[in-house]
Design a protein that fits this description.
By secondary structure, this protein is mainly α. The chain has one domain. Helix content is 75%, strand content 1%. It contains 14 helices and two strands. The protein has a two-stranded antiparallel sheet. β1 and β2 form a beta hairpin. It is globular, with a radius of gyration of 18 Å.
Length: 298
């Protein structure tokens, strides 16, 4: 029971990330850098306190996969945070949650996994759901929704690559993998920031943004990942698949009840098709492989 509570709490934390990212007065790449720095520092402290040893030998053996995963993590965060800034939290979360569908499509090519008829039907239903969500893709005083959804889909693509890449990492536990990727992400984002940003907002950040980024960094990459890995240890694959849907549902509830963003009936239908199809696909997969654990970042 304790593991389920930990895992659900981590999903709620992950689902609430948009509330903080949307109102931080920094560029998406700057937020991503700070997240990586804060997250790697906090996980380093967790490793020290819990006496988890990070094997540098294993990091070297998995160097190529860790590098590709870190690039994917950086791109994932940059485009996800930009998506939150351009459109509603609901649109960003739903477009981002297209990632499991992309993983299904990429798996036969990269991992040589068979694509069943059920999965094909789930992909088609998810695509139709996404098309319905895209009906809100018009600009208004709150932003360019179509652009925000596109950013969310790009973030989902990076997440799918991250998911696939993590499957090739060997002899490293979840915290080791996350710490390594956050650390590498920090190293990669520093030069990227100086190349792409004409003027860095890090030196002119407001006190409100400082508070938000600290909350986001500590909760999302520190507390969130610790609860995620702690809870995941005691759960079966099917439970993980089902409980993972607390993440997008949290985003939708926050969008509607806290921020006051509205979804049309067409969008709601699209959300049901997108989330429902991925749910059916993931649960059916976990039932066939009940011992498989999800070691991936959110």
């Amino acid at each position: 029971m304790k593991e389920k509570i930990y895992f659900v709490l981590s999903m709620i934390i992950f689902g609430a990330v948009g509330v903080f990212a949307k109102y931080i007065e920094l560029s998406s790449s700057e937020i991503a850098l700070l997240m990586s720095l804060i997250g790697s520092l906090l996980l380093f402290i967790v490793c020290v306190l819990t006496k988890i040893k990070v094997s540098w030998h294993n990091m070297k053996k998995n160097a190529l996969a860790l590098l590709l995963a870190s690039i994917s993590l950086s791109g994932n965060w940059i485009f996800l945070f930009q998506s939150y800034k351009e459109t509603t939290i609901a649109n960003a979360a739903l477009s981002y949650y297209f990632a499991p569908v992309l993983v299904i499509v990429m798996s036969p090519i990269v991992l040589k996994e068979k694509l069943s008829l059920k999965k094909v039907l789930c992909v088609c239903a998810a695509l139709f759901g996404l098309i319905l969500i895209l009906q809100s893709g018009r600009s208004d005083e709150h932003g360019n929704h179509l652009l925000g959804i596109v950013y969310g889909l790009i973030a989902a693509t990076f997440y799918a690559i991250l998911t696939i890449t993590n499957k090739f990492i060997r002899n490293m536990n979840g915290i080791e993998i996350t710490f390594s990727q956050l650390l590498l992400s920090s190293v990669l984002l520093i030069p990227y920031l100086f190349i792409t940003e004409e003027k860095l907002g890090l030196f002119q950040i407001s006190s409100n943004s400082v508070i938000l980024i600290l909350i986001l960094g500590i909760l999302h990459t520190g507390v969130g990942f610790y609860l995620f890995f702690s809870g995941m240890k005691g759960l079966e694959g099917q439970s993980i698949a089902i409980l993972s849907y607390v993440d997008p549902l949290t985003s939708l509830l926050i969008s509607a009840l806290v921020i006051g963003e509205r979804m049309t009936l067409v969008q709601i239908l699209g959300a049901v098709l997108l989330l429902g199809s991925t749910f059916i696909s993931e649960v059916s997969t976990k039932m066939k492989n009940p011992s498989r654990k999800n070691r991936l970042l959110s």
